[in-house]
Design a protein that fits this description.
503 residues, Neutral Protease, domain 2, five-stranded mixed sheet, 10 helices, globular, binds zinc ion, Peptidase_M1_dom, zinc, M1_LTA4H, aminopeptidase activity
Length: 503
């Protein structure tokens, strides 16, 4: 009874403080503020597959993703003007048997009108470019002569980003990229190569209404940053450790999906060492207690996931309190909304803790093992949501019932786990339908799978799934193929209840 009352109270708190989050295309499942006592009828989910123009997920042949692009970025940020001048060099070695006649770059800043202004793009090694053009969020260029297997193309690019103001707008997903008075975020801020799939071409998806559309090959980064007009006390959080040379900050990150930066004159900085990893924790000053809880949770989660899945591949993890209403993962850095810090209740039974565990898990399911976030988002989101449960089982068993009831069952999750970010469902709450299916029903599926297989086989499977797909872009085919090898338990009835496409 007490728990029921407590839950209702939390539901009301959520209504007051987090209602706008429900509009979001969040990385982390966001509480939908439906009070328990007046639960609205859930939309009826139709079991008919509704993918139309979006093709079904194509398995990615692992052996064919061999190239590892290298980015050398030199950026000058005019902090008060919110503008960034970037010189970028991209080195790409073609690994496919077939020759390459066109190169694609993704520039997500093209989503924001006027944010991206290209000064030049040229080849400095390998075939020259012709017919450079921009389409939606892509920059495409023909190669004057085809690039053959094993040959390297080096591109030099110069461009200016006019960072967009980050303003919460009703009905639109919270924006990570850009600036607010308290925080400037550089995420997906450089032009990057999508994976090249032999026989198919560049794997680059358009943005959806919610969720992430990016697919990232493992890459290497060298970043040099200068900040002009820096406000007093400017703090820089980044995906990698910083070293300073005069006015330049330099960073090196090898074997990562992305490189993100967050700058703020307000954030305070504390650290915690976990083995050889330093966790850097950035918190707004009035959230010190909540920030300490986030740091503790991230340290515990990092230790747990390193034990369960694979060693953490870097020496650095930045955890940044976000001045936007969302959580979002990047390699070596994740954001967690100030909205969750505001609601800190001093216990593990809260979203602040659950989502810290969730975002930390993305360092494995997104970072170590990549996936097609647009067409197969469950491969990171369901696993990260279920990783929250593993966190609670290990470190806060007293809150496990809260997690299962308030986080998952309360929403009566339904819908196929292998939903894409493009499926609009034709429902009044399309994001909720997406979240309930991919994140929450995904966690229900994994829990049922674990019970069917038994703990030993389940955790062996997870460990092997990570080790076999480390550094790659895993697909549902990889997941199910390995699963069938790891157990003699008949799984098809279970899979058919949760998935539309079972490769
Ligand atoms: Zn997530």
């Amino acid at each position: 009874m007490r728990q029921g009352l407590n839950h209702t109270f939390k539901g009301i708190l959520s209504i007051l403080t987090l209602w706008i989050l429900t509009l979001a295309g969040a990385c982390a499942p966001i509480p939908t503020p439906t009070p328990a006592s007046t639960a609205t009828p859930l939309p009826v989910f139709t079991a008919t597959p509704t993918h139309t123009s979006i093709p079904s997920p194509t398995p990615t042949p692992q052996e064919n993703i061999l190239s590892r692009p290298r980015y050398t970025l030199t950026a000058v940020l005019d902090y008060p003007a919110h503008s960034l001048n970037v010189q970028e060099r991209i080195a790409y070695t073609h690994a496919a048997e077939e020759s390459l006649s066109e190169v694609w770059l993704v520039m997500d800043a093209l989503l924001y009108p006027g944010a991206f202004q290209m000064d030049s793009l040229q080849s400095v090694s390998g075939p020259a470019l012709k017919d450079v053009r921009q389409e939606r969020i892509w920059i495409k260029a023909q190669l004057k002569t085809p690039l053959q297997k094993g040959e390297t193309l080096e591109l030099d690019m110069a461009y200016r980003l006019n960072l967009p103001a980050r303003v919460a707008q009703e009905g639109l997903r919270p924006q990570v990229f850009g600036w607010s008075e308290r925080q400037t975020n550089l995420v997906d801020w450089y032009a990057y190569l999508p994976p090249y799939i032999p026989g198919e071409g560049w794997l680059a998806h358009p943005p959806g209404y919610y969720g992430e559309h990016q697919v990232y090959p493992l890459s290497d980064f060298e970043v040099n940053l200068q900040v002009l007009g820096a406000p007093a006390g400017l703090t820089i959080a980044a995906s990698a450790p910083e070293s300073q040379r005069g006015e330049w900050y330099t960073y090196t990150l090898e074997g990562a999906r992305t490189f993100a930066l967050s700058l703020s004159p307000s954030l305070t900085h504390t650290t915690r060492q976990v083995g050889t990893v330093i966790i850097h924790n950035y918190t707004f000053p009035y959230h010190q207690n909540a920030g300490e809880r986030v740091l503790n949770t991230a340290a515990q989660a990092l230790e747990l996931y390193a034990r369960l899945f694979s060693p953490y591949p870097h020496q650095h993890l930045a955890v940044v309190e976000a001045d936007f209403l969302d959580g979002m993962e990047y390699d070596g850095l994740f954001f967690l909304s100030y909205g969750f810090y505001n609601l800190d209740n001093g216990t593990p039974a809260q979203y602040l803790v659950a989502l810290t565990a969730h975002e930390t898990a993305h360092q494995w399911f997104y970072g170590v093992v990549g996936n097609d976030q647009a067409l197969q988002p469950w491969l990171d989101e369901a696993l990260c949501t279920y990783a929250e449960k593993l966190y609670y089982e290990t470190y806060a068993p007293e809150a496990l019932t809260w997690w299962w009831e308030a986080r998952v069952k309360y929403y009566q999750p339904r819908g196929y786990v292998d939903d894409s970010i493009y499926n609009p469902h034709g429902e009044a709450q399309p994001y909720r339908a997406y979240r309930d299916a991919v994140y929450l029903n995904g966690a229900v599926f994994l829990d049922e799978l674990r019970r069917a297989m038994g703990d030993e086989a389940f955790f062996d499977f997870l460990r092997l799934y990570v080790s076999e797909n480390q550094g790659k872009i895993a697909s549902a085919r990889d997941f199910f193929g390995l699963l069938r090898k790891m157990t003699s338990v008949p799984l098809e009835p279970l899979l058919q209840r949760f998935f539309q496409f079972i490769p």
